[in-house]
Amino acid sequence: MVLILLGPPGVGKGTQAARLADELKGAHVSTGDLLRAARRDGTELGGRAQKYMDAGELVPDHLILDLVREHLARFGTDAHVLFDGFPRTTAQAEGLDEVLERSGRRVDLVVLFEAPDETIVKRLGGRRSCPKCGAVYNVHFSPPRVDAQCDNCGTQLVQRSDDVPETIRRRLEVYADQTAPLVSFYEDAGVPFHRIQADRPVDAVYADFKESVEVAR
Asked: Is 25 a catalytic residue?
């Protein structure tokens, strides 16, 4: 089964995708994670993407799709795959359809996670992460036991540069301009589509998410 999780940054897609992927023994595919891993491992694709990232430019669709294609080749065609925040544009969606078609697959379900902009600004603005072990906290919802200190390793927590309010609002504008049209793309294509209100407790959101997946299977 191939699932696509859509929604603005900070809406909780990653949390929900990771949880369901673990339960289904499937693959949680985040292109952001793929890019970071390719850079860290010094792969040929990572080197090509690095040039754009260092210049402050968006990584071209064809490179993103090459990363996705390379990653999917590691799994069998019967593996459950959850795409988290990808595709971001209709061009990427069309490219993904081609990649999947070559292996006899298709997108089986699209789930859109929605929340008010102010909720997202608060969520992302309160996010703090550990630069050493990668643990993530939120000063409003899940703070560390000791202020600004990682519970796991004691490292001083940091705020990502793109988690300041002004940048968050810009990211939401980019999402509305580039990614929101994917809703029409998949609805027009007749792909099963489900909307979930994500400004609720994580377990409640997950219950709805899991139900939508079970109905589509």
From this structure: no
Query: Cα separations (Å) of 149 from 1, 11, 57, 126, 202?
Result: 39, 24, 33, 14, 24
Catalytic residue among 19, 122, 123, 171: 171
Question: Are residues 37 and 116 in contact, defined by beta-carbon separation less than 8 angstroms?
Answer: no
Catalytic residue among 102, 106, 160, 169: 160
Give per-residue pLDDT as tens, 132-152: 998 889 998 889 999 999 999
The pLDDT assigned to 56 comes to 58
**Using CA of residue 168, residue 170, residue 173, residue 174, what is the dihedral sign?**
negative
Active site residue 160: yes
Length of the chain: 217
User: CB burial class (10 A; 0-12, 13-18, 19+) of residue 74?
Assistant: exposed
Q: Which residue has the tokens 């998949």?
A: 186
171 is catalytic: yes
pTM of the model: 0.83
**Catalytic: 13?**
yes
Query: Going from the N-terminus, what domains does the chain have, and what CATH number goes with each?
Result: 2-116+173-216 (3.40.50.300)
